[in-house]
Design a protein that fits this description.
Layout: H1 6-30, H2 40-58, H3 64-87, H4 89-95, E1 100-104, E2 107-108, H5 110-116, H6 120-129, E3 140-143, E4 149-152
Antiparallel strand pairs: 1-2, 1-3, 3-4
Helix pairs in contact: 1-2, 1-3, 2-3, 3-4
Length: 181
């Protein structure tokens, strides 16, 4: 139960180290986006990397080549989806959600907060984490596509960064992915 022999441990080291190094190499080659926190698809790929590495370490039925092949397939799929989403708005909409306005002009947007399952307490915590003592000093609060909350306090210099936020009232123009211009 505690020790079944050296064969399992030898395989763990013999497959685990090269599999880990192959994963690091493939992630380095594929770029920063592969492990970013941009959307749910990126999270799925990240979890799949961990699951594949875990399977390689504990399953003797998988060869090192199969594990590296699985890593490569995940990187290729990630690249294909991100490449497509930058070029075609339809793919972009499927893969990535829009940022959502949750507070604007002194009012909590309760409908949006309810749809996004965000409480007023969470928004107040985000305001505090930005070093702002009162929501009176806040112009807008946005739930970003990867789940972080942005607090906008200074709109004297403009609000162009809010133009892609769902429900932003001031002359909102949808931006298109780079390939659609």
């Amino acid at each position: 139960m505690f020790f079944d022999g050296w064969q399992g441990l030898t395989r763990l080291v013999a497959v685990g180290i090269p599999a880990y190094l192959a994963l690091l190499l493939l992630l380095r080659i594929s770029g920063k986006r592969t492990l970013s926190k941009f959307n749910a698809f990126d999270l799925i790929v990240t979890v799949a990397f961990g699951s594949t590495l875990s399977a390689a370490l504990v399953t003797s039925d998988l060869s090192l080549l199969e594990v590296v092949g699985a890593f490569a397939l995940l990187v290729i799929l990630q690249f294909a989806i991100t490449w497509s989403s930058v070029r075609w708005h339809g793919v972009h909409r499927i893969v990535k959600s829009e940022p959502q306005l949750l507070y604007h002009g002194g009012q909590f947007l309760r409908g949006a907060m309810h749809r996004e399952r965000v409480t007023e307490a969470e928004l107040l915590a985000a305001v505090r984490s930005q070093g702002v003592g009162s929501v009176d000093a806040v112009e807008s609060i946005v739930l970003e596509t990867e789940g972080t909350i942005s607090v906008i306090t200074d709109t004297a210099r403009g609000t162009a960064a809010l133009r892609t936020v769902a429900d932003y009232p001031a002359g909102r123009q949808r931006s298109k992915p780079l390939g659609d211009h």
